[in-house]
Write a structure and sequence with these properties.
The protein is mainly alpha-helical. 50% of the residues lie in helices and 6% in strands. It is built from three helices and two strands; from the N terminus they run E-E-H-H-H.
């Protein structure tokens, strides 16, 4: 079984999708990237998120986009 990348619970950040085991919304990473910031900048600002979590999220997003486009 794969390790959970993101989670959502009404008790954590009002149910926003967050990186599993943290209170950091996935939307925050997207906002950083859209704003021209690097993954390193994001990780520096949110040390509870691990690089492996960010890479796993981006890989999953890529795979899903490729599957939809196929």
């Amino acid at each position: 079984m794969r390790k959970k990348i993101i989670s959502s619970s009404p008790d954590v950040m009002g149910g926003a999708h967050v990186f599993a085991g943290t209170r950091v919304p996935v939307q925050t990473l997207i906002d950083y990237i859209e704003g021209g910031e690097s993954i390193d900048d994001f990780l520096e600002g949110f040390p509870t998120v691990k690089r492996a979590q960010v890479i796993a999220f981006l890989e999953e997003a890529k795979n899903r986009m490729i599957a939809v486009a196929a």
